[in-house]
């Protein structure tokens, strides 16, 4: 497999239902009946599912999970000697990867507007301001290069395979820069949340109920921070892997890291 094909099969950014005969109420064990979700909880879960899939980001997150977990499934099937099935799953994973890149074709314009806004209103902290500017620059370089890669890989624009390869590699390098810089932002956010928690606990004039509510909000943000950190940490080896012309990083680990990143993003989005 050429290096161009390897990038095609790894995006630098499904269930068959069984319709069994329903059991009558008398046949359903009492324990299972008691475990059924109350209507209010069912409605809440359905509302969250609808909200999750009502945005492009949510749909992309779901496709991402299928794509990367597909790599793990391919590895497991190959280990069991089921190569034909593994090939089919691999094709599905590659198709989803390709679709996700295509779906991002117009993302550059909102990114550009957002970057202009952040440049006009930078964070007060000088370090965070510099990090934000560098992240904006890295993404404004990443997206055009990814477009060149995608259009070139599909022979839509007349470029050589080497140009396609270089565009894919350099786009991932700029993505890797964004990921590394994001650790600085995450560290700053964690320190700010811990300081906020300390201030709440040191308040003398706050009643117990009010303090508990404020602490609960901070704890919720700290929990979200952990998943954001997990998402960034999982992306780090992937961006490094795709930034190299030759990498020995196995596809199954690409699948594992991508799945972890997808789960972390999904939990925060949920």
From TrEMBL:
InterPro entries membership: PEX11 (IPR008733)
Protein name stated in the entry: Peroxisomal membrane protein 11C
Keyword set includes Membrane: yes
Keywords: Membrane, Peroxisome, Peroxisome biogenesis
Pfam family of the protein (one): PEX11
Subcellular locations according to the entry: Peroxisome membrane
GO biological processes: peroxisome fission
Ranges for region Disordered: 1-26
A single Gene Ontology CC term: peroxisomal membrane
């Amino acid at each position: 497999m050429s290096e161009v094909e390897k990038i095609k099969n790894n995006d630098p950014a499904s269930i068959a239902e069984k319709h069994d005969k329903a059991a009558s109420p008398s046949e359903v064990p009492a324990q299972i009946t008691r475990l059924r979700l109350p209507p209010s909880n069912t409605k809440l879960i359905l509302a969250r599912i609808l909200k999750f899939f009502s945005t492009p980001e949510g749909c992309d997150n779901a496709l991402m999970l299928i794509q990367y977990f597909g790599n793990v499934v391919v590895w497991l099937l190959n280990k069991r000697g089921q190569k034909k099935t593994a090939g089919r799953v691999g094709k599905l994973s590659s198709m989803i990867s390709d679709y996700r890149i295509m779906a991002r074709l117009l993302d550059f314009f909102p990114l550009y507007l957002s970057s202009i806004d952040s440049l006009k209103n930078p964070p007060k902290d000088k370090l965070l301001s510099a990090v934000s500017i560098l992240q904006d620059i890295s993404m404004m370089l990443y997206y055009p290069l990814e477009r060149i890669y995608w259009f070139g890989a599909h022979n839509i624009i007349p470029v050589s395979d080497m140009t396609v390869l270089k565009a894919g590699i350099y786009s991932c390098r700029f993505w890797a820069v964004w990921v590394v810089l994001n650790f600085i932002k995450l560290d700053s956010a964690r320190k700010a949340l811990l300081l906020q928690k300390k201030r709440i606990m040191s308040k003398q004039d706050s009643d117990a109920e009010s303090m508990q509510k404020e602490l609960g909000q901070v704890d919720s943000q700290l929990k979200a921070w952990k998943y954001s950190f997990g998402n960034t940490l999982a992306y780090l080896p992937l961006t490094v892997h795709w930034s190299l012309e030759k990498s020995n990083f196995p596809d199954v680990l690409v699948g594992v890291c991508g799945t972890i990143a997808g789960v972390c993003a999904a939990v925060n989005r949920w």
